[in-house]
């Protein structure tokens, strides 16, 4: 019994010495998939990409021509935005497609980034059900907060 308690105590002390970044990383991952309400005065916009071939190029995303990230297959990002209209773009290898959205405080929206033709990409509206499903299946690649 004492050996067992000693082993448990040793395991707990080793765990306590580990950097907390792994735990924070898990918290960050869980934050996105729990779909919390948007931050006060902000809207949450999830941009997701479904499964893609391994050699498919990532789709670049910009907000008002400012890069916010890129999405490989089975991934997602969250944009926390104040209420306003926004010019979002999805970039393929040579062309881009624009989607202008207006968001309100407290709102959560889902957009799908997908290839369009050989050289372009596009953003399409997603339902809550499909958006949440794709977020749960994918991997988070970033969170962007605008003030």
The first-to-last residue Cα distance is 57 Å
Describe the main β-sheet briefly: 5 strands, mixed
Helix content: 25-40%
Q: Which class best fits the helix and strand makeup?
A: alpha+beta
The CATH class assignment is Mainly Beta
Structure report:
This protein is an alpha+beta fold and about 150 residues long. It has one domain: Immunoglobulin-like, CATH 2.60.40. About 25% of the residues lie in helices and about 45% in strands. It contains three helices and nine strands. It has helices spanning about 1-15, 20-35, 130-135; strands at about 45-50, 60-65, 65-70, 75-80, 85-90, 95-105, 110-115, 120-125, 140-145. The strands form two sheets. A five-stranded mixed β-sheet has the order 8-7-1-4-9, covered by helices on one side. A hairpin with a 2-residue loop joins strand 2 and strand 3 (about 65-70). The longest helix is centred in the first third of the chain and has 16 residues, at about 1-15. The relative contact order is 0.21. The model is unreliable at about 5-30 (pLDDT under 50).
Secondary-structure topology with pairs:
Layout lengths: L1 H16 L3 H13 L9 E7 L9 E5 L2 E6 L3 E7 L2 E8 L4 E8 L4 E9 L3 E7 L1 H10 L1 E7 L2
Keywords, please?
single chain; 147 residues; alpha+beta; Immunoglobulin-like; five-stranded mixed sheet; four-stranded antiparallel sheet; 3 helices; 44% strand
